[in-house]
């Protein structure tokens, strides 16, 4: 399935049972809520998906299950976060076999690769597959930045097509557009900078709080796209305290609590992560409860026409 690299693409959480096995029933409930809201793709196995704790078999099960659920309505993308080039190539091969439409790729894990090594890593994986690739550029959390000069080298490969822009530097969107035009699609990877990024020319939003609030997230995207900026800003201002739960070391626990509150998830996480307790839990719940009490009434945001 072709990927346009635009719109809202949830970085979905992985659902677990209390016995620490995959909860595919609740996972399906959440995926269907995303589809009903009008998302444009599903991303599996990212930070929110607790990728570092998943076995290869579990990742493959998630891809196959999601492909079966979405039935070609939207593309299914799996994140690759490997320590070796060989491991990343094997992960890409499995993704293709399991029906994934594309890949999101982090630089090498653990080892802080230099620029030349990072470029070679992405190139070797890209040459090994025909799946389209979105580079996940998050130097804040993963300590390696993919610079514009590095993208210049990477873009000689046709299947490197997009970047999940998580540098936290809004002006980087303009730099990318000025240098590469539409050759490199841009998806904002930071919830608290998403609307600003879209207004500066980003093509989409890899979202986190969408896992609990899919309709509000898609509404913001569709309204700004249609030129109804004031309406998008109003929803975004309501959303911001919730979106800030995504820029926190406990983002997985935070967002899973929000999913519980909206009825489309559980709070089970895989150790060493543990559910929130005490004052930390109380504070997060207060933010969620306030958001629910003041939840805005959404306009009919699907299939809206561009404002002249």
TrEMBL record:
Q: Does the keyword Mitochondrion apply?
A: no
**Protein family (similarity comment):** Belongs to the DapA family.
- A single GO BP: N-acetylneuraminate catabolic process
Taxonomic lineage of the native organism: Bacteria, Pseudomonadati, Bacteroidota, Flavobacteriia, Flavobacteriales
Q: Name one GO cellular component term.
A: cytosol
**Which InterPro entries does its entry note?**
Aldolase_TIM, DapA-like
- Record keywords: Lyase
Q: Which PANTHER family match?
A: N-ACETYLNEURAMINATE LYASE
Q: Which GO terms describe its molecular function?
A: N-acetylneuraminate lyase activity
- This protein is called Dihydrodipicolinate synthase
Q: Which SUPFAM superfamilies does its entry note?
A: Aldolase (SSF51569)
Residues that coordinate or bind pyruvate: 206
Q: Which organism is it from?
A: Aquimarina atlantica
Active-site feature positions = 136 (proton donor/acceptor), 164 (schiff-base intermediate with substrate)
């Amino acid at each position: 399935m072709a990927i346009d690299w635009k719109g809202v693409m949830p970085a979905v959480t992985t659902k677990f049972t209390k016995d620490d096995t995959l909860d595919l029933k609740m996972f399906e409930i959440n995926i269907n809520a995303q589809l009903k809201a009008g998302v444009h793709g599903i991303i599996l196995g990212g930070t929110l998906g607790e990728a570092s704790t998943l076995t290869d078999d579990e990742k493959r099960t998630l891809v196959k299950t999601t492909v079966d659920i979405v039935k070609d309505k939207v593309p299914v993308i799996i994140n690759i976060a490997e320590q070796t080039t060989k491991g990343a190539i094997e992960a890409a091969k499995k993704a293709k076999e399991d029906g994934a439409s594309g890949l999101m790729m982090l630089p090498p894990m653990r080892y802080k690769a230099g620029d030349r090594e990072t470029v070679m890593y992405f190139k070797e994986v890209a040459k090994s597959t025909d799946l389209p690739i979105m580079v996940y550029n998050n130097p804040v959390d993963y300590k390696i930045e993919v610079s514009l000069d590095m993208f210049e080298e990477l873009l000689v490969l046709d299947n490197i097509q997009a970047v999940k822009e998580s540098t936290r530097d809004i002006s980087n969107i303009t730099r990318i557009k000025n240098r590469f035009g539409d050759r490199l699609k841009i998806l904002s990877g930071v919830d608290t900078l998403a609307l600003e990024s879209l207004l500066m020319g980003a093509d989409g939003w890899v979202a986190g709080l969408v896992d609990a609030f899919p309709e509000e997230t898609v509404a913001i995207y569709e309204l700004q796209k249609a030129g109804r900026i004031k309406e998008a800003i109003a929803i975004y201002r309501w959303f911001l305290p919730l979106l800030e739960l995504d820029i926190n070391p406990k983002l997985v626990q935070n967002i899973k609590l929000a999913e519980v509150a909206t009825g489309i998830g559980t709070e089970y996480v895989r150790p060493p992560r543990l559910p929130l307790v005490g004052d930390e839990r109380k504070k997060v719940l207060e933010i969620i409860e306030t958001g629910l009490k003041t939840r805005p009434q959404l306009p009919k945001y699907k299939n809206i026409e561009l404002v002249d």
